[in-house]
Design brief:
Length: 287
């Protein structure tokens, strides 16, 4: 087959997501769900909040994507209150783990107090370390009550898009003091077959000068084992390198990790028994 890379359409990107979703073992039969939590002060102003998402491996895993407390209100138990509520909702939905990412200048000790453990460490080119943490909700971890819990008197409720924006802005302002936001470039490409139909596709991006990331890679079943996946992966790596990245990261499950290992990827972290009976891997390759 002659390779000719083309731009992936939005519909094709969605199709790849659906096909991968069909392959990955899942625990709960449900669509992904994002929600926002907000804590407000006596005047009704948002003073903290978080954005979380139940979806990976169909609700085996809840992602706590963003957690923020207003600088003036930190260390009064508000972050802990939000974290406990995310865990409560996760349990209610049937998720077995909550995972999240934090940077070395952020809040790793805060999460460890709540029973989270590091399962992936990534030394970033900008000098900071990025950690992934997990809490297995079915393990008996005693509830952590902060020394100063005076913030637990504030009202916690579900939030809306405006609250999500306030949370993201708060986090951006905090992170900017430590690390510059790098520019991102997408690499969303496909290979058409001889008739011009979709044969394989990759969804990847790069933080310029830093890190490439392969988010999805899919080859139509009859065309597998012919080198298409390897070709697309290498093209994504080439794109990352051209944009100044020295490393590419991706994740895989025990059902497809062999493909990435053959392509030179090493394990940097492992999430056991997620989804049930399987292990998940965080992978990297120096380029
Ligand atoms: C991290 C954050 C959400 C925690 O919220 P909070 O309301 O300040 O936390 P709590 O008051 O519930 O803290 C509970 C315990 O964790 C400790 N803690 C809180 N933040 C901490 C941090 N960044 N580093 C170390 N310990 C921390 C508290 O001192 C307290 O410990 P104690 O019970 O021994 O006194 C908040 O500080 C924040 O918004 N930070 C900036 C953004 C950020 O880092 N977000 C997390 C991104 S992953």
């Amino acid at each position: 087959m002659k390779y000719g890379l083309e731009e992936l359409t939005k519909e094709e990107a969605r199709y790849i997501g659906e096909m991968i979703d069909g392959i990955v073992p899942h625990e709960v039969d449900a669509d992904e769900e994002e929600f926002v939590l907000r804590v407000e002060n006596e005047s009704g102003e948002i003073i903290g909040g978080c954005i979380a998402e139940a979806f990976e491996y169909r609700w085996a895993r809840m992602f706590l994507n963003d957690l923020w407390v207003d600088e003036r209100c930190r260390r009064h138990g508000i972050g802990s209150m939000l974290l406990r509520e995310v865990e409560r909702i996760a349990r209610e939905k049937g998720c077995r783990v909550v995972t999240l990412g934090t940077a070395s200048y952020m809040a790793r000790p805060f999460y460890e107090k709540h029973g989270y453990t590091v399962f992936t460490t990534l030394q970033k080119p900008n000098g900071y370390i990025s950690y992934s943490l997990v809490k297995y909700l079915d393990k008996d971890t005693p509830e952590y009550v902060p020394t100063d819990n005076s913030g637990s008197r504030f009202r916690l409720s579900f939030g809306n898009d405006d609250d999500a924006e306030a949370i993201l802005n708060g986090l951006d302002a905090y992170s900017e003091a430590y690390e510059q936001k790098s520019e991102t470039a997408d690499f969303n490409k496909k290979l058409p077959d001889a008739d011009g139909n979709f044969a394989a596709g990759v969804i990847a991006d790069v933080d310029k000068g830093e890190l490439g990331s392969v988010d999805a890679l899919f080859v139509e079943e009859p065309l597998r084992r012919k080198g298409l996946g390897t070709y697309l992966l290498k093209e994504a790596e080439r794109f990352a390198k051209e944009n100044g990245a020295s490393m590419v990261i991706t994740s895989a499950g025990d059902w497809n990790v062999g493909f990435f290992k053959k392509n030179g990827y090493s394990v940097r972290g492992e999430l056991r028994d997620v989804p049930k009976g399987h292990d998940c891997y965080e992978l990297y390759k120096m380029i």
